Amino acid sequence: MAVSEIRSILVGLELLDDAEPDVFDDALETAVRAFQQDRGLGVDGMVGDETWGALDAARWRLGSRALYHSVPDALVGEDVRALQERLLEMGYDAGRPDAVYGARTARAVAQFQREVGLVQDGSCGPQTMKALRRLGRKVVGGRPQWLREAEAFRQSGPNLVGKTIVIDPGHGGGDDTGVVVPDGQRRWNEADLVFDLASRLEGRLSAAGMRVHLTRGPSPSTPMSGAERAALANTLGADLLISLHLDGHSSTAAEGVATYHYGTGNGLSSTVGERLAALVQREIVVRTGMHDCRTHAKTWDLLRLTRMPTVRVDLGYLTSPVDRVRLIDPMSREQIVEALLAAVQRMYFPVERDVPTGSIDVRQLRMALADKG
Ligand SMILES: [Zn+2]
């Protein structure tokens, strides 16, 4: 990725005034930050793999090329996302607006074509584009995809037994240890601690009757990207995915827990993911007393490319003396796992029988649900 390329994309997005000079100056960094902010990416002003992927996709404006379902390498770009969002606004089931032109997008396009009397080839060429332009802005504001996701979730029933959950311990593999903090003779690292949390949670969820998969072992040989983790969960047909991370900051004063779900700045948000994020966040905050850094909508690969409600939770700052004491203590980790378990239980627990946060006794709940048959 050349600096000139990055500059010209940002100029095209009207985030940067000049394609010159061909250097990574302050103006470019500011533009990159604005882009990252807009796309819900981590804002660091640097162009890493994820930011580059988003920039590369942003070259394409809807209508600048024909779109079709290409196999095996799907077309990816902002134009695909714009098309998906337009289809969703009109009530077609295009799946998540993930910017990937897959089979589901092609089906939604074919359905649209049938209804407006065009040849149903599932491709978006000049004729289809024209029809979309004509009709595309009629219906705005509904979020049918998320309503469908919520309905599918509701229909899957209130029982944990037989549901598949993927637990994703962050990092691991090669040099990717996540946040590392030296402490006397020891060096605490994020990858090992979240793996321990994931294993504990695996045990508890299995005992509750769920099928549980971890995305990685304790020390995988190579690092895994967010997209690879998402693909694994999709292949497993998971009902839920919870990704576990810790945070780090140059200031030791930074502390607390934060949870992330899929959502864009312009109001498209996974309602089920948002609900799971809210449950995870409040169970942990209430049960542990950790500082509440709230829930946030992001478009990270792991959240965007998964086909099931997905959350990522950052379970405190390893760099904070307050949080670290908790994270390195197995009893406190057990308390965090208990909170995560309660949040998952609550997802499937009928709303009308909801009980105050922090007070769920998981065994009682399981018996109550078993009673219901
Ligand atoms: Zn992490």
Automatic annotation (TrEMBL):
Residue ranges of every copy of the MurNAc-LAA domain listed in the record: 230-345
Family matches, as InterPro entries: MurNAc-LAA_cat, N-acetylmuramoyl_amidase_3, Peptidoglycan-bd-like, PGBD-like_sf, PGBDSf
GO cellular component term, pick one: outer membrane-bounded periplasmic space
A GO MF term: N-acetylmuramoyl-L-alanine amidase activity
GO biological process, one term: peptidoglycan catabolic process
Keyword Hydrolase on entry: yes
Name of this chain's protein: N-acetylmuramoyl-L-alanine amidase
Provenance organism: Actinoplanes italicus
Species classification: Bacteria, Bacillati, Actinomycetota, Actinomycetes, Micromonosporales
